[in-house]
């Protein structure tokens, strides 16, 4: 009998039940094969906070001692499979107290499988996933990210589809028969069993080379020792400054903590139409993360190191279609939109139109009574 | 950027020049210390016996003798939170409570030490409810012993006044920056009046520098955040900083007593008081006003030729490990008298006995330690009780008494 561990990376609140269902499903299935297992959560920020990247793990072992070896780690770091419940997390995971960006494949074992819920092609995903430096495999379950709420669960079968695909890519952990049997026990729902079987049949993996992927060096910084840290739990305010780079004379950048950046916290970002912007300042004033830089010509440029994707700017913008929130999966970099616009306004207009027209659903949980029923109706 | 410190004194305020005597209680002595330390913000919420301090402070303010922000909060939690924040913006603060009132402020107590804010508090020691009781026990103040608070116990009103001044000096020292609680036994000290030498403002000014948070002051001109959220990758370093501050407190306390002795001609030994300990074979150890019946009994026994001494623990945090190891190194047996309890703890002892056992464990030829619980809820501990305790301690030293248990003194069966 073989053992192994599965890392499930998900978005806090919206996918906490999803992640739990996957990990519990693995343990139940392994039990069918006489193995023991455990499912547990790890979090840096609160997994009960909207959209925050968080993790669950499932570990399957033959003996209690073996299990304990996995549990003695803060997080298992040589996982057979890493599941990403939202493809925007492929840009990295930064829940761990903001000590940088953890590549999605960092804790994946060599030759392990990264299993992603996505409607994108493997080739497109590889572009945003950091280079691992070791070969691994990539598999996708074709679906939009399944987002639920704190108290409600959107039972769209993403959980069992992932379990079915898992049995395909890592049969040494759990077989498809055990998975199907465990699903039947747990949900008593033949449709869920059928979904899992179909996902198993459809799943295919593509090899990813050691040097394939994004060349971006993940953001990181050195953690100071106690002799270097300021006493009294004091954190210095950051100085605001006139930006001192070519082309930015007269521009203004709010003070920002250099070690507190936001990349994969957000699932969407503002796409800004500078041609219709009236410079009313409302986005800049209302942004809770002070993410707007003021360009030399007085426009407000959302800085992607500071934006957490909340959408307040879009909500307060009085101009129709000036600010549009777009799903992160549409973007491969964090470059300045204002810079792009300044260099080539026509090209920017094309780019902007493409981003906005391609705008996918961006439900973040449920905001009104009956929304769940509406979404199910729209999808079927 | 130089934020104005809120402790700046009014130069027009008339200053007395000489020390004078007053007949005052321990609580009143603490109130005088607040006035002399020119405390900026005081918060209050009534609970006996601490509430006597708030009465005296209010009296001084209404009489025009003392100028400070005096806020009566709606609960102890707010009472301690208000001064915590005032301390962060640069105000010298005073606060206090008793018994379960102190416990109601517990969240604020924990964060104050974590934030390294030099709050000075008076704990009028009182039994914890239930049952509702007014008398003294030490469990209230002792509850913060592991959080970074400095803790001391005083015996007399004079010591209460002097120690409060020391507390401000040590707590606010940049090497320490930790809160300090001065424990005053309910009734025996808070409500007992004695002749106290009240120092002049000039004397106090020469001893106690103004509170200056420097660049850690919360002020619009000094934009900082305090009290951040932190996870496992930061927290241990933060705790280590607290640990180092607690270690450094020791040296700063010694400096303060040296200076007090020099400038006031009193203060004694920091950390502990040694009473008739020369050539002592049996040593008793205790805290607070318990010292009074113990000293009476020790003198009686000495008159009978018995080699008995007493060590009064003045500072519980930082714990005077070195001083206690030194004071007790020659004795055959030690009897620890706790006016507190540690239900379910090692040997069923009180808190002081357990701490002392740990402190003496690495000593060569460590003495036998007998532990006693006495005087709970303010019950009188008589000189005869102390003689009884001494006899039992001698028995423990001779192996005639099981030293792995704790004896309750003066309890009805």
Give a structural overview.
The complex is a heterodimer of chains A (380) and B (413). Chain A has 380 residues and is of the alpha/beta class. Chain A folds into 2 domains: 4-208, Pyruvate-ferredoxin oxidoreductase, PFOR, domain III (Pyruvate-ferredoxin Oxidoreductase, domain 3, 3-Layer(aba) Sandwich), CATH 3.40.920.10; 231-257 and 268-357, Alpha-Beta Plaits (2-Layer Sandwich), CATH 3.30.70. Chain A is 28% helix and 20% strand. Chain A contains 11 helices and 14 strands. Chain A has helices at residues 16-32, 64-71, 122-128, 158-169, 176-187, 190-202, 282-286, 312-316, 337-343, 345-357, 371-379; strands at 4-11, 36-42, 53-61, 79-84, 108-118, 136-142, 205-208, 234-236, 241-242, 252-253, 268-272, 292-294, 300-302, 323-327. Chain A has a 7-stranded mixed β-sheet. Chain A has a two-stranded antiparallel ribbon with strand order 9-10. Chain A has a two-stranded antiparallel ribbon with strand order 11-14. The two termini of chain A are 41 Å apart. Chain B is an alpha/beta fold. Chain B folds into 2 domains: 20-264, Thiamin diphosphate (ThDP)-binding fold, Pyr/PP domains (Rossmann fold), CATH 3.40.50; 272-408, Rossmann fold (3-Layer(aba) Sandwich), CATH 3.40.50. Chain B is built from 13 helices and 16 strands. Chain B has helices at residues 26-36, 51-62, 76-88, 99-104, 106-114, 139-142, 157-172, 201-207, 235-264, 291-303, 321-327, 351-360, 383-397; strands at 20-25, 41-44, 69-72, 93-97, 120-125, 150-153, 180-185, 193-198, 224-226, 272-275, 282-286, 308-313, 315-317, 333-338, 368-373, 406-408. Chain B starts with 19 loop residues before the first strand and ends in a 5-residue tail after the last strand. The relative contact order of chain B is 0.12. Chains A and B meet through strand 8 of A and strand 9 and helix 9 of B.
